[in-house]
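Self-study notes.
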Amino acid sequence: MRAYENQLSDNRPIRRSRDEKRRQLAELRQVLAGMKSHASPALRASITAKIAALEAELGEQKR
C-alpha cells in the first residue's frame, strides 16, 4: 500500500506547537528526575539531549 501526501508515515518530523513543546519538555524533565539509579547511561543521555534540543528550540522561538 502506498503512502499518500501528508501521511504521518512520510518520514517527516511531527510539527508541534509551542505549548506542546513546553508540555513535552516538562514531561521529559519529570522522567529524568524520576529515573532510578540503575537506568542505562545511554537512556539518560538521550533524554538529556532531547531536553537540550527542546530548550534550544523554545529559546529560538522566543525571539
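Second protein, same conventions, sequence then structure:
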Amino acid sequence: MNPANDQISAPKKPSPIRQVIPWMFAIAILVYMFYQVDFRKVWKVIAAGKPLWIIGAYLFYCAVYYLTDILSFFRAYNWFNLRISFKETALLRFASYAVQAVNGALTEIMSVLYMLRAKKVPILNSTSSAGFVYFNETLTLMTFLAYCAFALPTANRILIPIPYLNISFWTLFQALIISLWALVPLWLIFWRTGLCSRFPKIRDNPLLLSFKQAALKNYLEMFFYRFSNNLISLGANIIMLKALGINAPIALLFACVPLMVNIAYWPVSAGGFGGPQLVAHFLLKGYASEEAVLAYSIVWSALFFLTRTLTGIPFLRPVYQAAFPQDSARKN
C-alpha cells in the first residue's frame, strides 16, 4: 500500500464540533437530572452504600470485559484480516479505552488508522471486523431485551396504548423483538448459501467482508464472548444496586443494564456520563427514589471513567503515534 493511497483512503479526525457534541448532550442530561433532585440526598445514598461490594463487583466485571473484548477483536482480526498477536490486540484495545473515556468520536477512527498504518489493513476491512463484533453485541442485547419483554411480570410492564395502533407499548416492544430475531436466520441464510452470489455488490462490499467469510462457528464463538461479558455485567450491577439499597425486578434489569452500558458509547454520553443517567432514570423510576437511582448511575459512570482512563493511558502513546503520525510529527 503506497502512502498516497494511505492518505486518500484514511478518514480524517472528527471535527471539533462532532467531538464536543457528546459533551454538550452529557452536560445537558446531568443538569436536567440534578435539577430534579437534591444533591445532598444523592450523596447521602452514596455514603450509606457498601463501597467494597460496589468496587469489587465493578472490578470483577471490568476484568471480564477486558478479557472478552480483547478476545473478540483478536479473533475477528485473525479470522478476517491478518495474523495479529493477542498482546498487540490488547495494546490497541487498552489504548482505545482511554480515548473512549474522553473522546468517543475518535475511538474507532484511531483503531482503524492503527490497523491501516501499522498493519497495512485497509480501512473498510478492519471496520468490517469491528462490525462483526458489534453485530454479535447487538444479538446479545436483543437476547437480554427478549427476556425482559416476555419474563417481566405484567404489573411491571408499560401498558400505555399507542395512538392509532390500538395496541400497548409492551405489545409493540414484544413484536419488535420477535421481528428482529426473525431477521437473524435470514441473515445467516443469505451469507451461508448461494443467495449472496445473486447480489454481487452486497457480497463484495468490503464493509461486509467479515460476514462473507464468517462460518457459523465464528458467530457462536463471538456471541459467547459478548454474552458472557453482558451476563457478568448484569450480575455486577445487581450487586451494585443492592449495595445502594435498590431492589428492582431482575427481568427489568435484563433490559436496563445492557441499555445503560451500551448507551455510554453513544454520542449522547461523554466519559460514561449522560446517557446512562437518562436510561437509569426512566427504567428504574418507581423502584427507588430519584436520588438513589441517580446515585447508582453516577457511581457506575465514575467507575467506568476511572477504570477506562487508568488502564488505558499507559498504552495510549504508541497506538496514537502509529494512528496519527502527522500529529506526532507536529509535536516534535
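Instructor comment on the second fold: Residues 35-82+122-273 form one domain.
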